[in-house]
Write a structure and sequence with these properties.
The chain is an alpha+beta fold. It has 13 helices and 18 strands. The chain folds into 3 domains: 161 residues, ATPase, nucleotide binding domain (Nucleotidyltransferase, domain 5), CATH 3.30.420; 100 residues, 2-Layer Sandwich (Nucleotidyltransferase, domain 5); 71 residues, Actin, Chain A, domain 4 (Alpha-Beta Complex), CATH 3.90.640.10.
Length: 346
C-alpha cells in the first residue's frame, strides 16, 4: 500500500547518459530534457557554474578560472564528481523538490549504458545516480534501449539488428526473444572520433588548429561516408600554427570524407564482425528485416548507403535517431514494478 502511495508522488525517469548529449524521459510526459553532456566548473574547486547548453557554449572560450569539461568519455564516466553534479542538475530540473519529504519520494531511474562496459563502470553509473538523488536505479544496455525506442519487435523469436552510433561509441546488436544474442561495442567509432579526425586532418594538411565546435559543425554541414551527388564546400576558421594568427580557409566534402575513413571503417567492421557471429536462422531473418541505424552520428550522410553496399542488407535510419535510446528507457519504465522484483534489465 505504501509503495503504491509513494508511486503517486515520485517521478520515474529514463536517462540516455550520452558522451555528447543527454536526454531525459519522464513517465507520462515523454522526453522533457535534451542537453549537451558538458559541465562548466570553477578551476581548482569543482564548483559547478553551468550545465548543458550554457556550458557547451563555453567550450574553448573560458578564462583561466573556468573549465568547461565533458565528464563522459566513450560512453562511461570519466569524472565521477562532475557526472554526479550533472545528473543532479537533470533530476532537479525534471523533478523539482516539492512539499513532501523527498527522502521517501526519490525518482526511480532507468539509465542506458554501453553494452561493453565492465561491472566497475556499471557500479560507477549506479553510485553517481544514487549520489545525485535517485532512488532505485536500473541499467539497460544502449542497443536494447535503442531497438525498443525505434519500435523493433525485440520480443519476437526472430532476429532484429540495431546499430546505435553516439558521440563516444558505436553499439551493434542482434536481438531476439527480448535478449541480445550478439553485440559489439566500438569505443573509438562515434561522433567524437569523427571530430578528432577532422581536426587532425586540418592540422596536418593546412597547419590550422580548429576547435571541437568547428570540427563538429564541419561534420554536420559537409561530412559524408559515401560520395555525394553534389559535393559541398565549407569555410572554416581557426588559428594558423605557423603565424599564430586567426585564419579562414575552404574545405571540401571529399576531404572530410577522406578524413573520416578510419572511424567510418570501424563502424563497418563492427557491423561485419557482429554478422560474422550470427546463426544461420538469424541471418535469414536479417536478409528480410535488415538493420536500423540510431544515434546522433548515424545521421552522417551516406552511412546507410555504405553499410548497404558492405553488407548487402537493407539499411534504414530511424525516424528520430537521437531520441531512440531515451524513448526506449521510457517504454521500459512501464515494467519498473516487475524489474524491481527481479532487479535486472537485459
Amino acid at each position: 500500500m505504501f509503495d503504491k502511495l509513494k508511486s503517486l508522488f515520485s517521478t520515474d525517469i529514463g536517462i540516455d547518459l550520452g558522451t555528447a548529449n543527454s536526454l531525459v524521459y519522464a513517465k507520462d510526459r515523454g522526453i522533457v530534457l535534451r542537453e549537451p553532456s558538458v559541465v562548466a566548473i570553477q578551476a581548482g574547486s569543482k564548483r559547478v557554474l553551468a550545465v548543458g547548453e550554457e556550458a557547451k557554449r563555453m567550450l574553448g572560450r573560458t578564462p583561466g578560472n573556468i573549465v568547461a569539461i565533458r565528464p563522459m568519455k566513450s560512453g562511461v564516466i570519466a569524472d565521477f564528481d562532475i557526472t554526479e553534479a550533472m545528473l543532479a542538475y537533470f533530476i532537479n530540473k525534471v523533478c523539482p523538490r516539492r512539499w513532501y519529504n523527498s527522502k521517501y519520494n526519490k525518482p526511480r531511474m532507468v539509465i542506458a549504458v554501453p553494452s561493453g562496459i565492465t561491472e566497475v563502470e556499471k557500479r560507477a553509473v549506479e553510485d553517481a545516480a544514487h549520489a545525485a538523488g535517485a532512488g532505485e536505479v536500473f541499467l539497460i544496455e544502449e542497443p536494447m534501449a535503442a531497438a525498443i525506442g525505434v519500435g523493433l519487435p525485440v520480443s519476437e523469436p526472430a532476429g532484429s539488428m540495431i546499430v546505435d552510433i553516439g558521440g563516444g561509441t558505436c553499439e551493434v546488436a542482434i536481438i531476439s526473444l527480448a535478449g541480445i544474442v550478439h553485440s559489439y561495442s566500438a569505443r573509438m567509432a562515434g561522433g567524437d572520433a569523427m571530430d578528432d579526425c577532422i581536426q587532425n586532418h586540418v592540422k596536418r594538411v593546412y597547419n590550422l588548429l580548429i576547435g571541437e565546435r568547428m570540427a563538429e559543425m564541419t561534420k554536420v554541414e559537409i561530412g559524408s561516408a559515401y560520395p555525394l551527388g553534389e559535393e559541398k564546400r565549407l569555410e572554416i576558421k581557426g588559428r594558423d600554427i605557423v603565424t599564430g594568427l586567426p585564419k579562414t580557409l575552404t574545405i571540401t566534402s571529399e576531404e572530410v570524407r577522406d578524413a573520416l575513413k578510419e572511424p567510418v571503417g570501424q563502424i563497418v567492421d563492427a557491423v561485419r564482425s557482429t554478422l560474422d557471429k550470427c546463426e544461420p536462422e538469424l541471418a535469414a531473418d536479417l536478409v528480410d528485416r535488415g538493420l536500423v541505424l540510431s544515434g546522433g552520428s548515424s545521421q552522417l550522410r551516406g552511412l546507410d548507403k555504405l553499410l548497404m553496399d558492405q553488407t548487402g542488407l537493407p539499411v534504414v535510419v530511424a525516424e528520430d535517431p537521437l531520441s531512440a535510446v531515451a524513448e526506449g528507457t521510457g517504454v521500459v519504465m512501464n515494467e519498473l514494478d516487475f524489474l524491481a522484483r527481479n532487479k535486472k534489465v537485459s
